[in-house]
Amino acid sequence: MSILVVGSVAFDAMETPSGRRERCLGGAATYFALAASYFTSVRMIGVVGEDFGAEEEAVLTRRGIDTRGIEHVPGKSFFWRGSYMKNLNEAQTLDTELNVFQSFSPKIPEAYKDTEYLFLANIDPVLQADVRSKMPQVKMVCGDTMNYWIKDHADNLARVLRHLDALLINDGEVKMLAKESNLVLAARKVLAMGPKSLVVKHGEYGATAFFGEHSFAGKHKSGPFRAPALPLDAVVDPTGAGDSFAGGFFGYIASQTALTPAVFRRAMFYGSVMGSFAVERFGTERLQNLDKSEIEDRFALFRQLSHLD
Amino acid sequence: MSILVVGSVAFDAMETPSGRRERCLGGAATYFALAASYFTSVRMIGVVGEDFGAEEEAVLTRRGIDTRGIEHVPGKSFFWRGSYMKNLNEAQTLDTELNVFQSFSPKIPEAYKDTEYLFLANIDPVLQADVRSKMPQVKMVCGDTMNYWIKDHADNLARVLRHLDALLINDGEVKMLAKESNLVLAARKVLAMGPKSLVVKHGEYGATAFFGEHSFAGKHKSGPFRAPALPLDAVVDPTGAGDSFAGGFFGYIASQTALTPAVFRRAMFYGSVMGSFAVERFGTERLQNLDKSEIEDRFALFRQLSHLD
Fold first, then answer.
1. Do B141 and B165 meet the contact criterion of CB atoms below 8 Å apart?
2. Residue A296, pLDDT score
3. B206-213, long-range: CB within 8 Å, 24+ apart, which pairs?
4. Please, which residues bridge with residue A285 across strands?
5. Res. A219: pLDDT tops 90
6. How far apart are CA B247 and CA B249, in angstroms?
7. Contact list, B188 vs chain A (CB under 8 Å)
8. Which one of A34, A35, B66, B73 has the lowest number of neighbouring Cβ atoms within 10 Å?
9. What is the pTM of this model?
C-alpha cells in the first residue's frame, strides 16, 4: 500500500574520513522515500527552492516516487553542512540554512487522501500533528523527532506521540525524552506517553524495539526485539542512516497485509539493511541504485549475523 | 571436560546507584569459575591471603569447583574498590591493593595436568604465557586482557595472543590494541596477531565474534556473529559481567564434543546469559544460586529477543 512521508528535502555538504562532498541531495524525506521505494509505492510532501531542478526530481521519479506533494517556492532549499571527522557516530553541524523550509506548511494533495501509511519525519511537532489530523483515514502512523523538539517543544511533541503507532528515535533521545538513563525504564516511560511501540536506534549496535500493550491487534504480544547492525569495515558517510532505516522498516510494513510481531521483526531487519546500504556511499548515492536481490542477500547476511542456526 | 581458570581471587567493595557493599568475594577467576560451573567441572589457580577463609572457600566448593590450585599465603588478598555512580557501563577504580597478588606465581597442581580447556583471565601476560607453556596438552585456550597490558606490555601480550583460540576483550580494548577506530578493521588486525577468533564485548549492546581462517577444524567457516545483551530495567552491579560472560561462553564450549560455528554461537548466547545474571545482584551473589532451568529459560529469552521467528 502507499506510504506518505512528510519531511525535509535538502542539499547537504559533508566531510567524513572518506572524503567530502559540497552538494548532495538529502533531507530526511528523501532518504526515507528512496529506502521505502524498494518495498512499496511512496508519496512525498516537502518544500524545495529554485535550486531543486529536473536532475533532483529525476532521482526521486526514477524510483517511482510520487513527488506531486513537493512544493516549489522562490528561494533556496534547506541546506545543511556537517562533519564526521571527530566522530563517525555523531554529526557535528557546521551550518544550517533553513531557507524555504523556514515557512514550510505541508499541503496534502487531493490524490494523497487515500494514503494508509504515514511517516512523520523529523519536523516541528506542530506540523506533524497538523498533517496527522488532516489524514483521518491512515491505518498506521510512525514518526521521528530529535533533541531540539524534545528539549524545547515538549508539549507539542506530546500531542503527536499520542497518535503514533511507532516512534523511531535514538538512544540519547529516548533517555532525554523520558528523563531516565536506563534504556528499559526510559522505553517504558515513553510508551506511557502514547506511542504503541518504540524503535530505539543504537547506531553501529543496531536497534531495539519495545512494545506497548496495544502494539498489535488481537492476541499478538511481544517482548523486546533487538536487530543487529552490520559490522562494516568502511562507513563512508553516516548521513541519513536513521531515515533510511525508517524507510526500510516502514516500507516493508506497508507492503504486508497485517502488522504482526513477525512482520515487525522482519521490518526491523529491513530497516537495518537499508541503513547499512546508505552509509556505504556519500549522500543517497547507494540508495538510488539497488536491486531487490542485493537487498535480499543482505537480509540473509543479517540473519546469519544474528541467528543461532 | 574440565576447564581451568588462572586469575585473580579478590575482595571487592563497590558503590552503584543501587547501593554499596564493603566486602564481596570477587576477582576475575571467581566470577569465571562460578559461571562456568553450571556447564562443566572447573579448576582454579589463584592466590589468596589469610582473609580468605572457610566461608569463601565454601562459595566455590558448593558449586563443585576444584580449589586445590588456590594458594594460601600470609598477608591480605587482592582488594579492589570501585564506583559506578557516574557511569554504570564503566567502573571508576577508587583503590587497588594488590597485596598477595603482587607476587602471584601460578603453580599447576599435578592433578590439573590433564586439563583440556584453559582460560587465562586478565593477569600479567608473562604469567599467562608461562601457564600456557606448562600445559602443552590443552585443546583450547581462551584469554582476556585489559588496557594496562595493551598499553605498556604489548610485546609480552603479543607472545600470548599467538597461542589463543579465542581472545575476549571489549570494544575500547580491541581498538586500542589494533590502533584502529573501526571495529571490523580493528578485529582484522587483532586476528592477524594470532588469536584464531575474537569476541568483542559491547556492554549493554552485546558482543560480536570475528573468526580467522583457522577458527574451526575442517571445512567450517563463519562470518561475524553478534549476540545481544538483555535489555535490563535494573543493573544492580556490573562488576564481573565480562568474566561471567567468559565463564558461560567457555564453560559451554568445554561441555561440547567439538567446536563448530553452531557451538560457538550458542556459547556466545550462554556468555550473555551468565553476564545478565551476574549484574542482577551485588558481587557473585546471583551466580552462586542459579539452577539449570533458569539458565535455559533465559537462553530462550535471548533467542526471542534476537530471532525472526
1. yes
2. 98
3. B206/A205, B206/A226, B206/B272, B207/B245, B207/B268, B207/B271, B207/B272, B208/A231, B208/B183, B209/B264, B209/B265, B209/B268, B210/A231, B210/B184, B211/B261, B211/B264
4. none
5. no
6. 5
7. 233
8. B73
9. 0.95
Q: How far apart are CA A267 and CA B111, in angstroms?
A: 54
Please give, rounded to a whole number of angstroms, the shortest distance from the CA of B308 to a CA of chain A. Answer: 6
Do B249 and B267 touch, CB atoms closer than 8 A?
yes
Residue A221: the pLDDT is 87
CA angle B112, B115, B117 (to 5 degrees): 135
Residue B86: its pLDDT value, please? 87
The tens digit of pLDDT for each residue in A70-124 reads 999 999 999 999 999 988 888 999 999 999 999 999 999 999 999 999 999 999 9
Q: Residue B253 belongs to what H/E stretch?
A: helix B241-254
Structural Rg of chain A based on CA atoms? 18
* Cross-chain Cβ contact A308/B208 below 8 Å: no
- Name the residue in chain B with its Cα closest to that of A201: B205
The whole-angstrom separation of Cα B24 and Cα B22 is 7
Contacts of B208 in chain A (CB under 8 A): 231
Do B262 and A233 count as a contact with CB atoms less than 8 A apart? no
Q: Distance from A234 to chain B by nearest Cα, in Å?
A: 8
Round to whole Å and give the CA distance between A29 and A33: 6
Residues for chain B: how many in total? 309
| Closest chain A residue to B231, measured at CA | A184
Chain A residues within 8 A of B233 when measuring between CB atoms: 182, 184-185, 188
Nearest chain A residue (CA) to B269: A308
Q: If DSSP codes are grouped into helix, strand and coil, which group holds residue B145? A: coil
> Are A206 and B184 a contacting pair at CB < 8 A?
no
Distance CA(B286)–CA(B232), nearest Å, equals: 15
* Cα B250 → chain centroid: 8
CA distance, residue A309 to nearest chain B CA (Å): 6
Contact between B123 and B8 under an 8 Å Cβ cutoff? The reply is yes
List Cβ neighbours of A72 (8 Å cut-off, separation of 6 or more): A47, A48, A49, A50, A52
Helix (H) or strand (E) holding B266: helix B261-278
Q: What is the pLDDT of residues B83-116, one digit of tens each?
A: 999 888 889 999 999 999 999 999 999 999 999 9
Running DSSP on this structure, what letter comes out for residue B282? S
Interchain pair B183, A265: CB under 8 A: no
Say if residues A222 and A240 touch (Cβ distance below 8 Å): no
Ramachandran angles phi, psi of A266, nearest 5°: -65, -35
Helices and strands: H and E segment counts in chain B: 11, 13
What 8-state DSSP symbol labels residue B90?
S
Least CA distance to A189: which residue of chain B? Answer: B233
Residue A164 contacts residue A143 (beta carbons within 8 Å): yes
What type of residue is B254? A
CB contact under 8 A, B182 and A266: no
Chain A residues with a Cβ under 8 Å from any Cβ in chain B = 88, 181-185, 187-188, 202, 204-206, 208, 210, 223-226, 228, 231-235, 262, 265-266, 269, 301, 303-309
pLDDT one-digit tens code per residue, A147-181: 999 999 999 999 999 999 999 999 999 999 999 99
Residues B256, B164: Cα–Cα separation, whole Å: 19
Phi, psi of A85 (to 5 degrees): -70, -35
